[in-house]
Design the sequence.
């Protein structure tokens, strides 16, 4: 890649970025170094000298807007991976949007262009940084994927950005007639080789009003804002604790349209987190646990069951009336063949109830896999008391391992929510309550 320099004053801090020139000869990309006080007109002058074959004057497009000559480049928050798109003036394709004139107008706030002292930012989860970072919003043509695209209007809401093609415009590339817009985000912390490395988190915002966290009452930045009427706020540390605790307690909400999610800890209606990508901030281990629990919840809601083989636990959705189940290896299972009703090895005739009740002691039948969390807790218990303190949920489609340290005999399964009796190992009823509620 060729490199150009704009004249810089002595001891003036310089910035590096890229310039892509779209001309009759095709696209050419150059690296350019400039001082912070340089303007768009300076870029055009250098390109005119270095590329005399181009028709002058030139046009410069950045983030869906054509830039006016007087714009100082420092206003654009450019980085080494940013690209200024330069076109020959020629007959431009129509666009209703006005030119961006820097700090003299405020129309481009939505595109992260105006540099204010304290301003809202977009936030993304960056896979490279493995953390929440400030993000930058960028625009390109949906068809040719080039940044030589002018918006017909500026985005006014998240739907304008997240729904591909909601906003229209005109691609200024010579042979492209597309009018569909595509927005994407980049991590502002470093040069991003691909936007696939980041995902935008639209509930995480800059704490401009210095609002206290609903949990710890501390003021921090950035914050997560729930989409409830009161816009309750949590700092990111408290949100992580809230989410991890909710995972352990299986208290997430399963929404048919959204998936496995959380609502505002104050219990506000309509406050669920719509974009489940926010749970990426829990870290790889907890996020994998979140996905696994979400898949299990979906299977249970769909009247399915989990493979009982140790180390498997694959979700299965058998056809109605079929009791002989095979955990298909083709679908990523373990190949185990078992009975749907008793979760024992496949057999003919009625299920043997004695085998089902004694399944933990039997070496001839597959045992329910114990998760790392269950195993760690069981190891803490006295080994001699383990059999008396741990039982499986009596729901044949669940069978999750449950440990009881104290309290009454009325149990509620954290996975399938079944109310059951610890003594009878059956659904809780009035007789359990009357005869042995407290054992």
Sequence:
């Amino acid at each position: 890649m060729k490199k150009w320099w704009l004249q810089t004053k002595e001891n003036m801090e310089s910035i590096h970025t890229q310039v892509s020139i779209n001309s009759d000869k095709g696209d050419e990309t150059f690296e350019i170094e400039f001082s912070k006080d340089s303007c768009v007109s300076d870029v055009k002058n250098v390109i005119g000298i270095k590329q005399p074959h181009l028709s002058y004057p030139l046009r410069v497009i950045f983030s869906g807007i054509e830039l006016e000559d007087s714009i100082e480049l420092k206003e654009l928050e450019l980085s080494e991976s940013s690209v200024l798109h330069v076109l020959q003036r020629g007959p431009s394709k129509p666009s209703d949007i006005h030119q961006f004139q820097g700090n003299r107008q405020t129309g481009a706030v939505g595109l992260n262009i105006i540099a204010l002292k304290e301003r809202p930012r977009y936030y993304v989860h960056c896979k490279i940084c493995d953390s929440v970072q400030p993000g930058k919003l960028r625009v390109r043509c949906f068809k040719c994927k080039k940044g030589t695209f002018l918006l017909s209007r500026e985005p006014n809401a998240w739907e304008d950005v997240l729904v591909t093609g909601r906003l229209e415009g005109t691609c200024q590339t010579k042979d492209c007639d597309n009018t569909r817009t595509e927005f994407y985000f980049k991590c502002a912390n470093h040069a991003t080789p691909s936007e696939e490395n980041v995902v935008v988190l639209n509930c995480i915002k800059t704490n401009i009003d210095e609002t206290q966290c609903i949990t710890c009452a501390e003021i921090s930045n950035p914050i997560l804002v729930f989409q409830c009427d009161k816009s309750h706020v949590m700092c990111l540390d408290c949100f992580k604790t809230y989410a991890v605790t909710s995972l352990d307690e299986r208290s997430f909400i399963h929404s048919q349209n959204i998936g496995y999610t959380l609502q505002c800890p104050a219990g506000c209606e309509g406050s669920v987190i719509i974009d489940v990508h926010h749970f990426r901030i829990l870290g790889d281990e907890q996020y994998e646990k979140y996905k696994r629990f979400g898949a299990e919840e979906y299977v249970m809601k769909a009247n399915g069951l989990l493979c009982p083989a140790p180390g498997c636990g694959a979700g299965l959705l058998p056809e109605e009336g079929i009791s002989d189940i095979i955990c298909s290896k083709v679908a990523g299972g373990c190949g185990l063949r078992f009975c749907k009703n008793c979760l024992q090895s496949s057999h003919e005739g009625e299920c043997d109830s004695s085998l089902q009740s004694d399944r933990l002691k039997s070496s001839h039948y597959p045992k329910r896999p114990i998760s790392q969390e269950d195993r760690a807790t069981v190891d803490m218990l006295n080994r001699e008391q383990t059999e008396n303190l741990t039982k499986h949920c009596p729901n044949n489609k669940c069978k999750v391992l449950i440990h009881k340290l104290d309290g009454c005999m009325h149990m509620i399964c954290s996975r399938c929510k079944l109310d059951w009796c610890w003594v009878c190992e059956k659904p809780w009823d009035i007789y359990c309550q009357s005869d042995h509620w407290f054992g």
User: Anything to note?
Assistant: The longest strand covers residues 131-141.
